[in-house]
Amino acid sequence: MRQKVDINCDLGESYGHYKIGYDEQIMPHITSANIACGFHAGDPNIMAQTVTLAKKYKTAIGAHPGFPDIQGFGRREMKLSSEEVRNLVVYQIGALQAFTKASGMPLQHVKPHGALYNMAMKDALLAKAVVGGVEAVDSKLIVFTQTKSEMAKVAAKAGLRVAFEVFADRAYNSDGSLVSRAMAGSVIEDPKTVTKRAIEMVKERHVVAVDGKTIDLGEVDTICVHGDNLKAVALVRALRKGLEKAGITVTAVGKFV
Amino acid sequence: MRQKVDINCDLGESYGHYKIGYDEQIMPHITSANIACGFHAGDPNIMAQTVTLAKKYKTAIGAHPGFPDIQGFGRREMKLSSEEVRNLVVYQIGALQAFTKASGMPLQHVKPHGALYNMAMKDALLAKAVVGGVEAVDSKLIVFTQTKSEMAKVAAKAGLRVAFEVFADRAYNSDGSLVSRAMAGSVIEDPKTVTKRAIEMVKERHVVAVDGKTIDLGEVDTICVHGDNLKAVALVRALRKGLEKAGITVTAVGKFV
Amino acid sequence: MRQKVDINCDLGESYGHYKIGYDEQIMPHITSANIACGFHAGDPNIMAQTVTLAKKYKTAIGAHPGFPDIQGFGRREMKLSSEEVRNLVVYQIGALQAFTKASGMPLQHVKPHGALYNMAMKDALLAKAVVGGVEAVDSKLIVFTQTKSEMAKVAAKAGLRVAFEVFADRAYNSDGSLVSRAMAGSVIEDPKTVTKRAIEMVKERHVVAVDGKTIDLGEVDTICVHGDNLKAVALVRALRKGLEKAGITVTAVGKFV
Amino acid sequence: MRQKVDINCDLGESYGHYKIGYDEQIMPHITSANIACGFHAGDPNIMAQTVTLAKKYKTAIGAHPGFPDIQGFGRREMKLSSEEVRNLVVYQIGALQAFTKASGMPLQHVKPHGALYNMAMKDALLAKAVVGGVEAVDSKLIVFTQTKSEMAKVAAKAGLRVAFEVFADRAYNSDGSLVSRAMAGSVIEDPKTVTKRAIEMVKERHVVAVDGKTIDLGEVDTICVHGDNLKAVALVRALRKGLEKAGITVTAVGKFV
After folding, report:
1. Of C25, C78, C228, D190, which has the maximum CB count within 10 A?
2. Which residues contact D221 (CB under 8 A, 6 or more apart)?
3. Nearest CA of chain A to the CA of B134: how many Å?
4. Comparing C-alpha atoms, which of C58, C4, C11, C71 is closest to residue C31?
């Protein structure tokens, strides 16, 4: 069983005068940064700064494309054609790639954002559009998604590398989906519990769902964390230390997937 | 004296449901297409279509970055910092480059749009910001501008290749600037007159200004034309034929600059 | 049976440099203008011009609010909360009302645009949000919708006046819905046929569906027409003359609903 | 000498998921709220919430229109035509007025934001465009500006009521302008000093500039304060108490101008 895992976080989600996220604080502790590309969040200046920050801490960079909806932060479902989705993925990857190129950094992966991520997990047509966009730009890019999702199937079929992500700080339903944030107990805040779950996820490839059932996670490549508050940042520090103490190598997914 | 010239035109300036320009009609007759990148005009779908169209006619492709102002079509001056200008240039070039890469086409040049073009011609600081953005992405890109402009000086100093553009269908003031469109006679519509002027511009490197004075144009690499009405398209066909008849090779600027 | 009908058309859907619609040509022939409010189309300048044009021809004015999506022309479904929908309706009505007030014109009605119109016809919750927005600003505003729709029910329940609209140039399915534009024969272009259908709709309150079945239209208050091409404009002229010749008074819906 | 003064603050400047400003904390302590209208900040939902909050604390409401530039927070100069400026002012006032109407609150005033405010202070043509927009919607609205500005002259000439504003927490140059925020000592943070200055401003109509010269402020109707951090909120509480202790009535400007 592989003893390696990546830690990924959404970053660069500020916009102009509006600041969100403790990017400076979280960057040193993660191994893959999903950088917003200006459609749901981020702008050219924020992107430049975030790429510079990632370079400073040698964090691998991924594009984090979303729906064109700053006001809704890319969390509102939009019904776009496959053509439209493919092209907005191409556009956003390209925009970020110009900044990574300018910094001499490679682009490692693509992780769709918010409603686009969720919809593409379930909708094969949409997944094909997203994967088509990724392939069009660079077929060496790794796609982040959850195991058993349409995205995972479509990306694998297209011959793209896939990184399977898990959520150590979120409760799971027994069908493998995440318990809605609206439910009590959906988010786990205790660093020890989260770390314990993460170690189990990486080493055993399973997690215990809210109904007590043990779920097989298939492959586990990257743990998704958050950096939007200081408590979350502290949790990530603890999580990383805990993983390393348990003999797991925390490293960018591009090195082992 | 070199007997070669490029013909460039702004294209891909439609937006969503809104159509502008006879892109299909003009593309076969030009050698360099300046494609809008989504900030002043264009969107990911229009960009994809326009790149495909350029590929069909083997027209060389350039990025046409503008201010973030669809409503003003990038023609309204905005006072941005050097950092902001550099980054919006990087972003827009990158976005277009993803589409050219997806089509297996190279990116030949960058021509700023509207207010950004005009301001960078006169303002050395702004010119530096634009050139900095181009360099950051790819120092092999050719910069389009007018002779004696700040852009020309800054780009040359940075070691970038520069293509000097002329306007065969526009009257010139004796200081080398264009007569304002608000003035009668500022735009020349007769295909024969335009062709005659263009030939003189390419072969003699000069043009006669409105006050009768002959102006030295320095170098002449590319002629800017328009495709926003069918008359303009007919003019370009006539112009190209006239140039070729006069022994001038009409070819993409990347082949000779 | 009432022998009066209104003719309504979407107008003011240009945006900045982008022109759509023959507003000047169509305005004299209609009695109610649905003016875009800047979210799916239109901008403050276009709104000012369109209100001035409506005033010139004494055409009644309505707000035409849409989803915040210029690129998609408000035709792409977006999943917004009731709160968001209510507020975007309030906002857009208010913005237009400032221009009508400045012109000394009253605001007669509200007709949602595109995806918002279609979704609110079927979704009671969304219809409530739209109606809630209208009521919040002015409970004397008339709501345009189709008979038997959720919008019609919700608006009536709220005590708002409703204008039922029909589409004389569109084929109907036997369930009262419009035949998709993707189907052959969905749009009727012959002025005589359209006029004949319109007269029947107004006088008999029914229309013959594509399968030959006669559909009861309930009430018929306003006929929706289009002004996006010159043929459409000619059709509207013919339609209006035909209606008047048949003894039907063509007048703004606010005068009789 | 009048012993009354208003305290105004910019509010409702959040945008979608992005939060700025301690609106809840500051609202009880001010008498006039300048609410962003969706062009430089704010969106329909934020506007609805901010109007509700103002109603709760009986704070008078003003429109705070800005340039169409969320990314630049309305602080970047844009060169628009008079027509464009007039219309964007009309639009934004109307949009906010729909929310105040829905809440049964009157609209008291208009205070342009950021670059629009600063430019209209110095540029008579721009000031005319702004004032023209205000007048077009409602000539009873009060215009906020600084004494001796072009805005003040133009608004007075148009017969509009003007509220002259001062900045108790900012250092003044001897020509009456504010010391640039880039200079040390430009912002005064000590509540006692700010309160002392404010009392002097209201009672004596003057302030001591950085070079020691005493400047005549002409009329003083409203003191501009900030609510973007908790220290600023505390300062406003202290300021209001200090003014009242000094026998000055703190009340909305609409009651005495």
Report:
1. C78
2. D5, D6, D163, D164, D165, D253, D256, D257
3. 10
4. C58
Chain B residues whose beta carbon lies within 8 Å of the beta carbon of residue A96: 94
Inter-CA distances, A183 with A73, A167, A170, A172, B134, Å: 22, 16, 11, 11, 49
What pLDDT sits at residue A228?
87
Which residue in chain D has the smallest CA separation from C38?
D91
In CATH, the number for domain D4-255 is 3.20.20.370
Closest CA to B47 of C71, D252, C42, D49: C71
Residue B95 to residue A95, Cβ atoms within 8 A? yes
Choose the mutation target among A67, A79, A88 for the interface with C, i.e. most C CBs under 10 Å. Answer: A79
Q: Do A15 and D70 touch (CB under 8 A)?
A: yes
Question: Is B76–D76 a contact, with Cβ atoms under 8 angstroms apart?
Answer: no
CA distance B252 to B87: 27
Report which of D31, D46, D49, D32 is spatially closest to residue D103, judged by C-alpha positions. Answer: D49
- Among C90, C101, C137, beta carbon nearest to D44: C90
Distances (CA, A) of B29 to B54, B59, B64: 11, 9, 19
* A&D contacts, CB < 8 Å: 31
For residue D58, give every residue at least 6 positions away whose Cβ sits within 8 Å of its Cβ, in sequence order, or none. Answer: none
| Residue B1: per-residue pLDDT | 56
Interface touch B78/D80, C-beta < 8 Å: no
Question: For residue C3, with 0-12 CB atoms within 10 Å meaning exposed, 13-18 middle and 19 or more buried, which class applies?
Answer: exposed
Assign D1 a pLDDT band (cuts: 50, 70, 90). Answer: low
Cβ atoms < 10 Å from Cβ of A251: 15
Which one, of D2, D1, D4, D6, lies nearest residue D144 by Cα? Answer: D6
Measure in Å the smallest separation between the Cα of A47 and chain B Cα atoms.
Answer: 9
Q: How far apart are CA D188 and CA C196, in angstroms?
A: 76
Nearest CA among B101, D154, C207 for reference residue A94:
B101
Q: What DSSP state is assigned to residue B177?
A: P
Residue A56: CB partners within 8 Å, gap ≥ 6?
A27
User: Does the pLDDT value for residue A1 go beyond 60?
Assistant: no
Name the neighbours of D, counting chains with at least 3 Cβ pairs within 8 A: A, B, C
Beta strands A4-11 and A222-225 are: parallel
Chain segment C206-218, per-residue pLDDT in tens: 999 999 999 999 8
Q: What is the pLDDT of residue D182?
A: 86
Contact yes or no for C20 and B18 at CB 8 A: yes
Instruction: Kindly provide the ipTM of the predicted complex, given to two decimals.
Output: 0.96
Task: Please answer whether residues B135 and B160 qualify as being in contact, where contact means their C-beta atoms are separated by less than 8 angstroms.
Answer: yes
Residues B69-128: tens digit of each pLDDT: 999 999 999 999 999 999 999 999 999 999 999 999 999 999 999 999 999 999 999 999
Question: How many whole angstroms separate alpha carbon A11 and alpha carbon B225?
Answer: 43
Q: Residue B181 has what pLDDT?
A: 85
Task: Tell how far CA D196 is from the center of its chain.
Answer: 21
Tally the C-alpha atoms within 13 A of residue C252's C-alpha that lie toward its C-beta: 20
Q: Which residue of C has its CA nearest to A68?
A: C69
pLDDT score recorded for residue D181: 85
User: Could you please report the per-residue DSSP string of D20-39?
Assistant: -S-HHHHGGG-SEEEEE-SS
∠D85-D88-D90 over CA atoms, to 5°?
110
